[in-house]
Amino acid sequence: MVRILSIQSHVTYGYVGNRAAVFPLQLLGYDVDVINTVSFSNHTGYPTVAGTKLSPSDFNALVDGLRSNSLDTTYTHILTGYIGAPSLLQAVLDFVRRMKMMYPEVTYVCDPVCGDEGKLYVSPECVPLLRELLSLADIVRLNNFELQVLSGLLDKIDSLEVLNSALDLLHQKAPHHVQTLLVSTTTKQTNDFLDVVVSTVTGARYRVQTPRLPCYFTGAGDLFTALFLGYVLKHSSVVRAAERAVSALFSVCEETFGHYQKEKTDSCSVSQDWALRELRLGPGIPWLLRLAEQSDEIEILTGRKLFRAIELCVPPDIS
After folding, report:
1. So which residues are the catalytic ones?
2. Is the dihedral of CA 192, 318, 80, 151 positive or negative?
3. 3-state SS class at 296
4. Mind listing the pLDDT tens digit for each residue in 245-260?
5. What is the per-residue pLDDT for 315?
6. Are strands 139-143 and 119-120 parallel, antiparallel or unpaired?
7. N or C: at which end does the chain have fewer Cβ atoms within 10 angstroms?
8. Contact present, 79 and 225 (Cβ < 8 Å)
């Protein structure tokens, strides 16, 4: 039986971190337990944020409690997201390493939320710890900038050729663990589109492409990672899972953007503008559930768009 432990941020308002990840996974039929790395009123893009941060000692107390009741033995999957403090990141790293050592069959999904658009939003001290965390992962989901930073690539990732080099580097850093890498990327050649590139340890690579919506959505990566995990459990195929996760996420973002365009006014405050761009997860639920079905005729049955993967011509030279 699948049981997932999700270690991410939590907000009262909106959908980021565990708020974006847990509900979709439960809708898809999986038991999910949570450890909230922060508990904030809202995400940090707003002018003000209130709340608390989990300390390393409190994190260790929680996992010690699980272990003392042998509850840690029930987890089949661990999912981690935003962990902003180096001391807490070290505690999570120690926990994941111990779990992988004691229970090698546990699948670890890592979303190393650390930056975007050329800028880190965690302490630089977190970077080497995140690289260690990635080396333990079976599935990794990152954006362009995170791939560049964590692979150690000096060049900016602005073409598929550079992207492939960065993927090679990351696979080589953890050849015995990382089975699947997913990168959300926009290159110069595809500026009007958003690509999700799926890279497997065998060297196979695929791309799922959607139109790029002219809007920034906080929490989209957290939702995508959870959807991919849920769909890969349903479909046992990373390509089918990526197609469905991309299609579900695009539908949510498209709904959110439509709502934003309809409701936004020139008098909106910064807070109101952010609030209008919070993911509208509720209206996307019916399509999210239909995508869990095995049918390849889902587009015909629903009239909705399923974005398909294409294979990238990359030599299988990953060691």
Report:
1. 222
2. negative
3. coil
4. 999 999 999 999 999 9
5. 44
6. unpaired
7. N
8. yes
Q: b or e along 216-239 (b: 16 or more beta carbons within 10 Å of the residue's beta carbon)? A: ebbbbbbbbbbbbbbbbbbbeebb
Q: Is the pLDDT of residue 229 over 70?
A: yes
Span 150-173, average pLDDT: 83
- The alpha carbons of the chain give a radius of gyration, in whole angstroms, of 19
3-state secondary structure of 183: strand
Compute CA distances 262 → 51, 74, 265, 297, whole Å: 31, 46, 9, 32
Distance CA 100, CA 137 (A): 9
What residue spans define the domains of the chain? 3-265+272-293
Q: What is the pLDDT of residues 186-212, one digit of tens each?
A: 655 556 788 899 998 888 899 999 998
Angle CA 6–10–15, to nearest 5: 100
Per the prediction, the chain carries an average pLDDT of: 89
* Contact criterion met (CB below 8 Å) for 224 and 18: no
- Give CA–CA dist 291/235, Å, rounded: 10
Number of residues that make up the chain: 319
